[in-house]
Amino acid sequence: MSKAQDHTLIAMPWRALHQWHAGLAHAFTRIDSADALRCLAQALGHLVSVESVMISLERKDQPPQSLYLQGIPEQYRESVIERYFAGGYLLDPFCLAVEQGLAEGFYHLEEIAPDDFFDSDYYKTYYLKGGCSEDSYFIVDVGNRSKVSLSLFQGFGGQALSAGQLDLLRAVEPMVRQFIRQFAQCNRLITQQDTVAVPATVDLKPSIQHAFEHFGSEVLTEREREVAHMVLRGHSVKSTANELRIAAETVRMHRKNLYLKLAINSQSELFALFIEWLRQDRV
């Protein structure tokens, strides 16, 4: 642990620090039980007020596997959460960052999301409609291109996490990482062959690569598909131009052409078309 992290912990209220350490110690006693992740989430709740928690197992080119959910209202589970695991994750900025090699650590949504993400239909559908306005994220490498993600959500009923609270979560990241790695080993998330133990019922399509290579492939050029994917992820024209290393006017031209070819008029219609395509592609 760095000196800066150590100072952050020292500056915590004594009671919260004591509850965190006691909660984490209790979680370690339950490390090989189904209750372990709930105990970890409860320990984190002593540090910051968190409305809901989602813990998932993630592996390159495979859908995330839900390990634990807490505090997510029942009315959102089918309409948002189940759709997320069925294909919506393909546009999630954290999943995309992990796919692109995001290092383990602690991150806030604003550090990961593209510049226009908070105006995107994905954010409106999977965050705002799910009662969530911001997300913080622990990512832990558990071996062989496999990671465990722990998302802490803040909704409209709670205050946004302050810079100090985010620093506090960063400070305890090494302890969270140690716990999750030990949990993965004790609960055999990775088999002896060092592959993820995904249930046989999980459909491994559509993978991120499959989705982005095939959506609109019947009518769109490869460059138009790339621009469509950037729009769906929440990139602005400027950001898309920088990422694809083309001129902004070229981006606008491709966007206009792909809208014409897909017979749509807006980013909202593009998002709806992509989600419907995902649903049909899984049938």
Highlighted features:
alpha+beta; five-stranded antiparallel β-sheet; single chain; Beta-Lactamase; 2 domains
What does the model show?
The structure is a single chain. This protein has 283 residues and is α+β, with helices and mostly antiparallel strands. The chain folds into two domains: 49-186, Transcription factor LuxR-like, autoinducer-binding domain (Beta-Lactamase), CATH 3.30.450; 208-281, Winged helix-like DNA-binding domain superfamily/Winged helix DNA-binding domain (Arc Repressor Mutant, subunit A), CATH 1.10.10. Helix content is 52%, strand content 15%. It is built from 14 helices and five strands. A five-stranded antiparallel beta sheet has the order 2-1-5-4-3, sandwiched between helices. Strand 4 (132-143) and strand 5 (146-155) form a beta hairpin. Helix 1 (3-10) crosses helix 8, helix 2 (14-29) runs antiparallel to helix 3 and helix 12 (237-244) packs across helix 13 (248-262). The longest helix has 16 residues, at 14-29. The radius of gyration is 20 Å and the shape is elongated. Residues 192-206 have low confidence and may be disordered.
